[in-house]
């Protein structure tokens, strides 16, 4: 099984990813070859329905604790960390103050990123009402980001059209005008400032939704600011600075994770996109397990991103639980199961920044799959 791009150079070669990229410079084309497991079935025999049945068997045998409880406990811990941080911020001892900053930042990102992401996918409960309330609370009130805009961009576009150019190609995370090191190591620290502005931009023209979102975001920011002023003893300006600093703590990995797991992998046009199971296996990458990021961002965004794209309604804990089955199924059918380390991807993006983040990606075509 292999793919060919229609123009220019192909992405990269990485020994930690399950396939290798080989560029054919003589013809101006590039071939993407995979090394399937010995004795594997043909990639055309892979079926998302068949894999889904295997996954559903695991889900049906799992308890409520496995399906939802583990992740609710992590969200509760995030809320507890946020309030612990507010309490510790009242102390001016450098170590306690640093602990307060870290606790508030970690709690915020657990709620606003992990929690909001699960809620928008309906993965926090079987009840639609519970998920709708959770996405409003976690995304808008706690995270200062529009739940409706997030649903429109993430659920309606990114997931059904993963790595399809002009749709779910993660191009919204590109900023070609920024120098490499500014984009990779400085700009992400400003994510808390841009989040409300992006919300307004996504909802522009939908005036009632935009007004409702602005009111909710303003309310959430006011509550956070009020607690820091009246319980932690900050001045108005000091509370605002503390909020910005704490919410910036995980800005770097937030941007990095969003580009590492799709950009640099095969991109397709609407005409060349393969069937869904092939699209997700080729265009999505798992990062290695990381104790901090798996908790703060969740398995579905870190170590089980392939599983999440194949079965987006599963909770983080369930994505982790079905991971061995998904991996075995894809590799046994000659499909790639992309994995790399955080630092491995970071080095590649610094090296390939111009090619991956500035230039337009080449269009990938599957061949030999008849």
Number of helices: 16
Q: Evaluate the radius of gyration.
A: 21 Å
Q: Give the overall average pLDDT.
A: 88
Q: Based on CA inertia axes, which overall geometry fits?
A: globular
Strand content: 5-15%
Which structural class fits the helix and strand makeup? alpha+beta
Sheet of most strands: 4 strands, antiparallel
Helix amount: 55-70%
Distance between the termini: 11 Å
Helix/strand order, N-terminal first: EEEHHHHHHHHHHHEHHHEHHE
Which stretches are low in confidence, meaning pLDDT under 50 for 5 or more residues running? 1-30
Q: Which strands sit side by side, in order, in the main sheet?
A: 2-3-1-6
List how many beta strands DSSP finds: 6
Keywords:
globular, alpha+beta, 370 residues, 4-stranded antiparallel β-sheet, two-stranded parallel ribbon, 16 helices
Secondary-structure blueprint:
Elements: E1 2-5, E2 19-24, E3 29-34, H1 48-61, H2 64-88, H3 94-120, H4 128-142, H5 147-158, H6 180-185, H7 191-203, H8 207-230, H9 236-247, H10 251-260, H11 276-283, E4 285-287, H12 291-296, H13 305-310, H14 316-332, E5 338-340, H15 342-351, H16 353-358, E6 364-367
Parallel strand pairs: 4-5
Antiparallel strand pairs: 1-3, 1-6, 2-3
Folded structure, characterized:
The structure is a single chain. The protein contains 16 helices and six strands. With 370 residues, the protein is α+β, with helices and mostly antiparallel strands. The strands form two sheets. Strands 2-3-1-6 form a four-stranded antiparallel beta sheet, with no helix packed on it. Strands 4-5 form a two-stranded parallel ribbon. A hairpin with a 4-residue loop joins strand 2 (19-24) and strand 3 (29-34). Helix 1 (48-61) packs antiparallel against helix 14 (316-332), helix 2 packs antiparallel against helix 3 (94-120) and helix 7 (191-203) packs antiparallel against helix 8 (207-230). The longest helix has 27 residues, at 94-120. Residues 1-30 have low confidence and may be disordered.
